[in-house]
Each structure stands twice: as C-alpha cells, then as structure tokens.
Amino acid sequence: MMIKDWLPLFLERHKIRSPRSDWPTPDSADGMEIYRGYLNSFIKIKAKKAEADAASTRVASGESPRFVEDHLPRLLVEIDAVRHDLENASAKPKKAKASPSPEPITSCLDCSGVGLVPLWNSQAAATPTTSAAHCTCAYGRWMRSRTKPADVARIPDLADIRENESQWTTIHPGDFDDAELDRLPASFRRLLAERMRVKPF
Ligand SMILES: [Zn+2]
Predict the structure, then answer these.
(1) What's the gap in Å between 178 CA and the centre of ligand 1?
(2) Residue 137, domain extent
(3) How far apart (Å, rounded) are the C-alpha atoms in residues 194 and 199?
(4) Is residue 15 part of a domain?
(5) Which residue among 135, 164, 185, 189 is least crowded, i.e. fewest CB within 10 A of its CB?
(6) Residue 18 alpha carbon to ligand 1 centre in Å
(7) Both 11 and 85 in a single domain?
(8) pLDDT of 140-198, one tens digit each?
(9) What is the pTM of this model?
C-alpha cells in the first residue's frame, strides 16, 4: 500500500489520538498543507503505516505537542524510536520456551484440577471474605511458576497456609454449625481445629 493511500485515514486516527480544537479540516487550505507536509516527510523516510500508528500512539501518551505544526516533527522522532525498538527487539536472543502446560490434575483433592484452592477468612466467620491460594499439586505449582511476581506476592501459597499461622483457612466457615461440631468424634474435631487454625473445640 502506497503512503498516499493510507495517509488520509492515518491523519484522522492521529487527530483522534491527539485531539485538539485547532486541527484544520482535511479539505481546508491548512488541512491540505498539513497533508502535503506529512506525505513528503513520510515518503522521505519511507514510513510504514504500522510505524506511523505506533509513533502516533507514543505522541498521544507523551506530553502534547504545543502547536499543530509540532506534531509532524514529533511523529518523525517517534517513528525513528519505533524503528530502534524493533531493531533491538529482533537482535535480542529468543526467550527460552515457556514450560509446557501440564494436564490439570482432576483427581487433586484440594483443587480438583483448577490449580487454585478457595480460602476463607477464619477471623471473620460472620462475613467470610474469600481468597484463593495456588494448590500444592503439580498443576498449581505450574500456575504459580507462570504468575507475575507482583501477583505471586498477592496470591497465597497453599503450602504456606498449611504450614504457617494465618487468618486463612481452606475450611468453609459455614460447613459446620456448633451442634454438628459437637456430634463429631473428638479426634476429627482436633484435626479440624488444626486445619482451621483455631483452638480445639
Ligand atoms: Zn491441586
């Protein structure tokens, strides 16, 4: 596609990305002068449509050019930057292949293959707030290994929940009421209390 074929619509997209009240209409004398200026400059640097759009997005996300005439020089600078970024990206060694996704382990008693285990706040039983922890099964481990560091800090690890004291429990607070608890064998109540991180009842 020739530059003159995509330029008119590109200019419209650029105006939408960088709106201002004094953009001349395309068919005005000023508008046609702008069009010719862009066409000549883009031909000179052999601009590609994708580069121009990427540059236009950069201009829009940066500090707005003060005058209408400042837009073309800024676009040219950004097209140059886009080209450098593309060169750098293609020069970089290819990233190591991501580890293949294991099959969800539907037999996992904790997550049933979801990889995430719901957690309840044992200290707010009246209005339990829920969260989720990455499961300790291979699928849960794989999910955690693929999670962004910021999210890993946010999403608990089921292994930690089991090992350390915290307000989180994997037991739904509504699962048992007191009368039901009383009927449970003492050994099971102890086990339950241990998993809920509460005093034996
Ligand atoms: Zn699991």
Answers:
(1) 29
(2) 116-196
(3) 8
(4) yes
(5) 185
(6) 49
(7) yes
(8) 999 999 999 988 888 889 998 888 777 787 776 666 556 666 666 677 667 666 666 55
(9) 0.46
Q: Which tokens is 176 given?
A: 């048992």
136 Cα: distance to centroid of ligand 1 (angstroms)? 6
pLDDT at 90: 75
Judgement on whether residues 124 and 171 belong to the same structural domain of the protein: yes
Look at residue 109 and tell me if it is in a domain.
no
Please, what's the largest Cα pairwise distance for the chain? 90
Q: What is the pLDDT of residue 163?
A: 85
pLDDT tens digit sequence for 75-106: 998 999 888 888 887 776 655 566 667 888 88
d(CA 96, CA 112): 30
50 and 120 together in one domain: no
> Are 12 and 85 in a shared domain?
yes
Both 81 and 8 in one domain: the answer is yes
Cα of 140 to ligand 1 centre, how many Å? 5
Closest CA to 56 of 66, 43, 65: 65
> Ligand 1 center to residue 190 CA distance, Å?
24
pLDDT of residue 85: 85
Residue of 36, 41, 33 whose CA lies nearest to 80: 41
How many angstroms is it from 110 CA to the middle of ligand 1? 5
**Per the structure, how many domains does the chain have?**
2
Co-location of 75 and 124 in the same domain: no
**What φ, ψ does residue 104 adopt, rounded to 5°?**
-60, 135
